[in-house]
Each structure stands twice: as structure tokens, then as C-alpha cells.
Design brief:
- The chain has eleven helices and 14 strands.
- Helix content is about 40%, strand content about 15%.
- A seven-stranded mixed sheet has the order 6-5-4-7-10-13-14, sandwiched between helices.
- It is an alpha/beta fold and about 350 residues long.
- Helix 2 packs antiparallel against helix 5.
- The radius of gyration is 20 Å and the shape is globular.
- The structure holds 5-S-methyl-1-O-phosphono-5-thio-D-ribulose (MRU).
- 5-S-methyl-1-O-phosphono-5-thio-D-ribulose binds next to helix 2 and strand 9.
Length: about 350
């Protein structure tokens, strides 16, 4: 299958199908999510991951979790939706697209209830939820396409580009955020040379980014995370592109652990650092990066997960934050679907969001 045919979440024949990203690059397998627990587990275990794709999964996931409600009372249905939304929202804390999509699904019900003056039926409500989930997916695809164009306007043919984690097509509805300009550039003969950080401990760069770029015929070189400095020093990198899980109102951006180190290195070597942030990922209710909740994961991911034997002594203490925050001072520009945002971010992000 071609990369763009491999959507992270599909809703076909009334079934919610999730590409199990934990099995990539070896197997391209879809699993069906039938219950709220299936959806929660798929998000928690990163079967579906990447902020926008988590948002898409939350939309369909909330719908499939409540569609079995057999009562006719809107009040009971609304309560179930609220409780299920809270439950799904507890699966991963950092990517704001999760709560953003869930709130959006709830808001559509509240608005329709108000408009119908109490005349909304449970069946109508279910239909509205499915339509909203579809809308979230379609809008994300359009948003990625637009970010691709804006991103490409900052890049030149033949450039060397470093990326961290996976903000590609399988992290979104389609095309990716920071990989979208690379795909677009490929269509237009830009001939980029991409360097993908492996991205320990869950290897999204090695397993996912290098898989999707290689499959698409893009020149990609996989490096270990600790090789970012040498490729920059060698003069092989002209721009760094990364995604984002939540951008605070002042422009601090949380992304996969290791991103902030890459940004600091880029500054040292005078390389522009571009963060791709759909407006759904900009959270004006979070004032600064210090207010972003950072997900902590199990230590086994560091020393056990990919190895036959434990790669650390028995009983070792671990610290495994899944994300870090890049201070806005290291971000050259923020690329959104509405345009390229430059500092001062505290002013310009708010302006953009309210446009
Ligand atoms: O833990 P993950 O794999 O969900 O982390 C993903 C990232 O950090 C991505 O860079 C981010 O979600 C942006 S995806 C377009």
C-alpha cells in the first residue's frame, strides 16, 4: 500500500479501524476499536499516536463508545457522553488535540440541544457526533496540506533537513505536519535530504518516519539521537522541522522528548528551527511551557522494550518523560495552516487564533 493510503484511523462499514503503529515497520495491520476501553488502550499504548491523529481517534472513539446507548432520554445520553469523554481524556495528558477534539464533540451536542429547544433526539445526537468526527478528520487533512505549502515556502531545493520523532502522515489524518512540505517538495522535484533522529525510547523516528519517507522514495538517513550535533557540524543540515503536541500561549512548544535539545543545537549552529503547529494544537489556556503537563512513562521502555535481555541492572531507577518543552526563544517560526507565525509569539499566536 502507498503511504497516503495508510490512514492512522479509518471509519469504514460503520467500524472504527486503527492502524496499529506499534507493529510498524514490520506489519501494516489495522485493529478494530469496539469499546471505550479499546480506544483508551490504543491511545495509551501509542497504537494511534501523534497529536492530530489522537484528536481524530478521540472523535470517532467517543462516537463508537456511546452509540450503543439504548435509552431515549437526552439527559442520560449527554451524561454518558460526558463521562466517556472524561475517561478517554485520561489516556494521554500532553497532546492537547485529545481534549480539544473531545470538547468539540461535546460542544456540537450542546449547541444542537440549545438550537432545538429540547427537541433533539438521541438518534439525532448520535448522527451529529459521527458527522463532527468526520469533520475533525477532513479538516485535519486540509490543515496538513496547507501547512505543507507554508512550510515549503521556507525551504529550498536540495536542502538537508533534520526531523525528530514522527510528525508524518500517520501522525495526522493525512500528509503530516512537518513532513507535509517534504512530501510536497518531492512532488515538485525539491530533492531534499532528510535526516531522521531515531527518537528513543519508542523509536518513532526509526520505526515510523524512516519507514514512511523511505516508502515514498524520499532520500532519508536514519541517525541515533546523539548524532544530531555531528550532522549539523558537518554542514549537512539547513533546517530542522518538528511537530508539536501542545503550544502554550507564549510560544513554548511541547514535543517528543529530545526536541528541545535539537532546538538548542540548531541555535548554536545557526540553523533555522521550524515547529509545525496546527491551530488545534495551540492552547491559549496554557500560559507557558511550564504549565504543560508532561507525560511520564514506564522505565521498561528505556531498558527492556527493544532488547532480548534487560539493558540495565536489576532495580535501576529510571526517569522517562515522553515530552519536553522547547522554549519559544529557540523557535525560528511556527508554521500553522493559517500561515507562518514569527515572534513575538505571545502576541501573534493569539491574533492568529482569534482571526
Ligand atoms: O508520543 P507520540 O509518538 O504521540 O509523540 C508524537 C510527537 O511528539 C509528534 O511530534 C507530535 O505529536 C506532532 S504529530 C503531527
Amino acid at each position: 500500500m502507498k503511504v497516503f493510503d495508510i490512514a492512522p484511523v479509518r471509519f469504514i462499514d460503520d467500524k472504527m479501524m486503527i492502524l496499529d503503529q506499534t507493529r510498524l515497520p514490520g506489519e501494516e495491520v489495522y485493529i478494530e476499536a469496539q469499546t471505550k476501553e479499546d480506544v483508551w488502550e490504543a491511545i495509551y499504548h501509542l497504537k494511534v499516536r501523534g497529536a492530530p491523529a489522537i484528536g481524530v481517534a478521540a472523535g470517532y472513539g467517543l462516537y463508537i463508545s456511546v452509540r450503543g446507548y439504548e435509552g431515549r432520554e437526552m439527559e442520560g445520553f449527554r451524561k454518558l457522553v460526558r463521562e466517556t469523554s472524561e475517561y478517554l481524556n485520561s489516556s494521554r495528558p500532553t497532546a492537547v488535540n485529545l481534549s480539544w477534539a473531545l470538547k468539540r464533540m461535546e460542544r456540537v451536542l450542546d449547541e444542537a440541544t440549545e438550537k432545538a429547544g429540547g427537541g433533539l433526539t438521541v438518534e439525532d445526537a448520535k448522527g451529529l457526533m459521527l458527522a463532527e468526527a468526520e469533520k475533525i478528520r477532513i479538516e485535519d487533512e486540509e490543515s496538513c496540506r496547507a501547512m505543507g505549502e507554508y512550510g515549503l515556502s521556507l525551504l529550498k531545493p536540495g536542502m538537508g533537513i533534520l526531523t525528530h520523532c514522527n510528525a508524518g502522515t500517520i501522525a495526522t489524518a493525512k500528509y503530516g505536519t512537518c513532513l507535509a512540505p517534504i512530501y510536497l517538495g518531492k512532488e515538485r522535484g525539491y530533492d531534499f535530504k532528510v535526516f531522521a533522529d531515531e527518537t528513543r525510547p519508542l523509536l518513532q523516528g526509526a520505526r515510523l518516519t524512516s519507514w514512511e519517507l523511505h516508502k515514498s522514495g524520499i532520500d532519508v538517513t536514519l541517525i541515533c539521537d546523539n548524532m544530531a550535533s555531528i550532522v549539523m557540524k558537518n554542514g549537512w543540515i539547513d533546517a530542522v522541522v518538528v511537530g508539536c503536541d501542545r503550544m502554550a500561549a507564549n510560544g513554548d512548544g511541547a514535543n517528543k522528548i529530545g526536541t528541545s535539545g535539537v532546538a538548542i543545537l540548531a541555535k548554536e549552529y545557526g540553523i533555522p528551527f521550524y515547529m509545525f503547529v496546527p491551530t488545534s494544537t495551540i492552547d491559549l489556556d496554557t500560559p507557558t511551557g511550564d504549565d504543560i503537563p508532561i507525560e511520564l512513562r514506564k522505565g521498561e521502555e528505556i531498558y527492556q522494550m527493544w532488547y532480548e535481555k534487560n539493558m540495565a541492572p536489576e532495580g535501576i531507577k529510571t526517569y522517562n518523560p515522553s515530552f519536553d518543552v522547547t522554549d519559544h526563544k529557540y523557535i525560528t517560526a511556527v508554521i500553522t495552516e493559517k500561515g507562518v507565525v514569527r515572534p513575538p509569539y505571545d502576541v501573534n499566536l493569539r491574533k492568529l487564533k482569534n482571526e
